[in-house]
Design brief:
By secondary structure, the protein is α/β, with parallel strands linked by helices. It folds into two domains: 204 residues, P-loop containing nucleotide triphosphate hydrolases (Rossmann fold); 100 residues, Magnesium chelatase subunit I, C-Terminal domain (Helicase, Ruva Protein, domain 3, Orthogonal Bundle). It is built from 14 helices and eleven strands. The longest helix is centred in the last third of the chain and has 17 residues. It is globular, with a radius of gyration of 21 Å. It starts with a helix and ends with a helix.
Length: 332
């Protein structure tokens, strides 16, 4: 950015363009108690066209959160329950024979929506997972001989249950890497749980009035504005240093190399900058600050660092390593 005047102008523009985000959050909070972390990350995913892998026990309002968000932006929402007998055609669709016309016609699957909840994605084999991940990467689906573009914005939130691992098919690391963020969701606080009880304890049908305060077109326009958020060269260098530290800790005075089998890929560098820009946008700022990078750093990196057997034997997780990196690597 050439001058302070430019930054002030950009800041004013971003502040105005991001105003609708507050309205979305207010509407979602009418339904969801707490979970601001999940909702904000969903918005980051929408604004950057990145997908989310979420790990959490059942009953934490994951479906309700993403379906409520879909209502607030007038977007199509579909929930796909992944099971061992699910087929790729159950996700993307298939060709169906019409006896009257003696012709085949495409029947589109649930992937043709704006927001997708892929519930317990690791319950289905790799063939099914790859059908979903291809749509995530290419934003298109081929049925028969025809390729169909998916509607934008397009966001997949895939969930994994951290408790039951019997009968599951863990996602290969290369597939996990395609998810922009991996979130870990914990139980609500005691105060939040009491509020949940007061709000929905006797509401068996769970009907909530949520207003539509934005449109998919608004989200797409905002995603273009997010690209304009200014990030200083020193912060770009900081992002590169953080990712390089996962591959070569010695360079930064870290003793983590024996604990890391594989460091983060270049996708991490790209996603870290995009997520930081989206975080700044959501907070109404036209420029990225170090806290934006640190706030999303764990979610971008935790699933991209593969620890060694030595680390596992010492109960050291990828999250421990990410924390150590952020504590040690200084701003250039």
């Amino acid at each position: 950015m050439s001058s302070e005047i430019d930054i002030n102008r950009l800041n004013a523009k971003i502040s105005a363009e991001s105003e609708f985000i507050k309205e979305i959050l207010n509407e979602v909070k009418k339904v969801i108690v707490g979970q601001e972390y999940v909702i904000e990350r969903l918005l980051i995913g929408l604004l950057t066209q990145g997908h989310i892998l979420l790990e959490g026990v059942p009953g934490l309002a994951k479906t309700l959160a993403i379906s409520t968000l879909a209502k607030t932006i007038d977007a199509k929402f579909k929930r796909i329950q992944f099971t061992p007998d699910l087929l790729p055609a159950d996700i993307i669709g298939t060709m169906v024979y019409n006896q009257k016309t003696s012709e085949f016609y495409p029947r589109k699957g649930p992937i043709f929506a704006n927001l997708i909840l892929a519930d317990e994605i690791n319950r289905s084999p790799a063939k099914v997972q790859s059908a979903l991940l291809e749509a995530m990467q290419e934003k298109q689906v081929t049925i028969g001989d025809t390729t169909y573009k998916l509607d934008l914005p397009f966001l997949v939130m895939a969930t994994q249950n951290p408790i039951e691992q019997e009968g599951t098919y863990p996602l290969p690391e290369a597939q996990v890497d395609r998810f922009m963020l991996k979130l870990k969701v914990d139980y609500p606080s005691k105060k939040e749980e009491r509020e949940i009880l007061d709000r929905v304890g006797d509401n068996y049908e769970l009907k909530f009035e949520v207003k539509t305060v934005a449109t998919p077109q608004q989200i797409l326009k905002a995603s273009q504005v997010v690209k304009e958020v200014y990030i200083d060269d020193r912060l770009k260098d900081y992002i590169v240093d953080i990712v390089f530290a996962t591959r070569n800790g010695k360079e930064f005075g870290l003793d983590i190399d024996p604990l890391v089998e594989y460091g983060a890929s270049p996708r991490a560098t790209i996603f870290l900058m995009r997520a930081a820009k989206a975080s700044a946008f959501i907070n109404g700022r036209g420029f990225v600050i170090p806290e934006d990078i640190k706030s999303v750093g764990m979610d971008v990196l935790r699933h991209r660092i593969i620890v060694t057997y030595e680390a596992e034997s010492e109960n050291i997780t990828s999250e421990d390593i990410v924390e150590k990196i952020f504590d040690t690597v200084l701003l250039p």
